[in-house]
């Protein structure tokens, strides 16, 4: 992924100066980048899906100035979205953050394997969003609203495993979106890959009216299923 001048090319959708949850165990600022080609119906940042930011969105030079003032207070900066790897200016932005002595993290769904692979050497941590069982490509595509999404995610996950960067696999869970069999399939795949940490994140309804009927149906997996998942992935957790 070629780097460009992030100050002129990066399109932001938001900025959080301090977060204790976006990079587990770290105090981090979060830069939200605008745009995502997928259309997951339950996306909690649906406003970041369009590629064009609002006139009220922060500007990268202003964010960079804030980060400069917080050097020594923050552990690092997480680039989130949307899908951050959509933007060609991401590599330049990561380099500018690292030049200030801050660690760099990334939230990604693995949509662009080649871009992610090029960026990984400059990252300290990745939060990897796994939607459902990669063995069921049709269901994966149905969740993302995009064809061949499962294949791209698999390549991205393989690149992440090969590079040695610290990462966390997490999945937004709702029982009507991810079946028990799919959960077991995911856990088996993670075990086969040697991945020992996996987080199920609580599903949250967004403003889409189609999501509202799912609200009363939400629940965590049954205890016996949780035990089976934990046996396959020792670091399995709910969040």
Structure description:
By secondary structure, the protein is α/β, with parallel strands linked by helices. It has helices spanning 6-9, 60-69, 90-99, 113-119, 137-144, 149-163, 180-193, 223-232, and strands at residues 12-19, 28-33, 76-80, 103-108, 125-129, 166-173, 197-202, 235-238. An eight-stranded mixed sheet has the order 1-2-3-4-5-6-7-8. Strand 1 and strand 2 form a beta hairpin. Helix 4 (113-119) runs parallel beside helix 6 and helix 7 (180-193) packs parallel to helix 8. The longest helix is centred in the middle third of the chain and has 15 residues, at 149-163.
Oligomer: single chain
How many discrete domains? 1
Strand segment tally = 8
Q: In one word, what is the shape?
A: globular
* The CATH top-level class label: Alpha Beta
CATH superfamily: Aldolase class I
Question: Per DSSP, what share of the residues sits in E-state strands of 2 or more residues?
Answer: 15-25%
- Note the main sheet: 8 strands, mixed
Q: Into which percent range does the helicity of residues fall?
A: 25-40%
Distance between the termini: 33 Å
Overall pLDDT confidence: 93
User: Structural class, from secondary structure content?
Assistant: alpha/beta
How big is the Rg?
A: 18 Å
CATH topology: TIM Barrel
**Spans with pLDDT under 50 lasting ≥5 residues?**
1-7
Series of H and E elements: HEEHEHEHEHHEHEHE
User: What's the number of helices?
Assistant: 8
The side-by-side strand order for the widest beta sheet comes to: 1-2-3-4-5-6-7-8
CATH architecture: Alpha-Beta Barrel
């Amino acid at each position: 992924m070629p780097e460009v001048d992030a100050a002129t090319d990066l399109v932001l959708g938001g900025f959080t100066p301090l977060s204790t949850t976006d990079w587990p165990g770290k105090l981090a600022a979060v830069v939200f980048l605008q745009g995502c080609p997928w259309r997951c119906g339950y996306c909690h940042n649906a406003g970041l899906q369009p590629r064009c930011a609002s006139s009220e969105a922060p500007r990268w030079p202003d964010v960079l100035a804030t980060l400069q003032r917080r050097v020594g207070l923050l552990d690092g900066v997480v680039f989130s979205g949307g899908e951050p790897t959509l933007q060609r200016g991401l590599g330049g932005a990561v380099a500018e953050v690292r030049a200030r002595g801050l660690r760099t993290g990334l939230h990604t769904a693995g949509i662009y394997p080649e871009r992610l692979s090029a960026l990984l050497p400059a990252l300290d941590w990745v939060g990897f969003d796994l939607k459902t069982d990669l063995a069921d490509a049709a269901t994966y595509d149905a969740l993302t609203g995009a064809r061949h999404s499962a294949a791209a995610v698999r390549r991205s996950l393989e690149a992440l495993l090969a590079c040695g960067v610290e990462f966390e696999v997490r999945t937004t869970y709702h029982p009507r979106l991810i079946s028990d069999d799919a959960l077991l399939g995911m856990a088996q795949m993670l075990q086969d890959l040697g991945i020992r940490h996996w987080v199920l994140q609580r599903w949250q309804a967004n403003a889409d009216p189609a999501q509202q009927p799912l609200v009363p149906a939400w629940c965590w997996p049954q205890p016996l299923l949780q035990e089976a998942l934990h046996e396959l992935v020792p670091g399995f957790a709910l969040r």
